[in-house]
Amino acid sequence: MASKQRPATSSGSDSDPRYAMFDERKRKRMISNRESARRSRMRKQKQLEDGINEVSQLQNEINKLTQTINTTTQRYVEIESANNILRAQAMELTDRLRSLNSVLHIAEEVSGMALDIPEIPDPLPNPWQVPCPLQPIMASAEMFQY
């Protein structure tokens, strides 16, 4: 029985063209894998940078919105305060007008002359106002957790 033997002229893959082709394919695969890994790392780095940029933009937007909310809330409180003062003044003036009208009614009875006494309208007709006072919605930057 004859067994196959390797040529004794050189050691293993150095001279055998089959091994040389195998080594060349292995080397090309390694280079390709390294390049693929490099591209993958670059993609991940870009995704990370894009995510950081998006977070930064969203934080800036949150800060702007928070500032707008705070300014609007402050303006609302100022206007509500001014409205409360005007409502109180309107009620006071209405009470004075009622007092004056009652004096006119007494004068009309005492003098016997008919006086033209106007009706007093409702001082605060607000059909859009809800029956209970609204509490302003307060917002602050601490409400948003990153």
TrEMBL record:
The GO molecular function terms of this record are: DNA-binding transcription factor activity; protein heterodimerization activity; transcription cis-regulatory region binding
The cross-references to InterPro entries, in alphabetical order and at most eight, read: bZIP, bZIP_plant_GBF1, bZIP_sf
Q: Which CDD domains match?
A: bZIP_plant_GBF1 (cd14702)
Q: Which intervals carry biased composition (Polar residues)? A: 1-14
Region labeled Disordered — which residues?
1-48
Its annotated compartments are:
Nucleus
Enumerate the UniProt keywords alphabetically: DNA-binding, Nucleus, Transcription, Transcription regulation
Could you tell me which PANTHER family the record lists for this protein? BZIP TRANSCRIPTION FACTOR 44, BZIP TRANSCRIPTION FACTOR 53
Put simply, this protein is called Putative Ocs element-binding factor
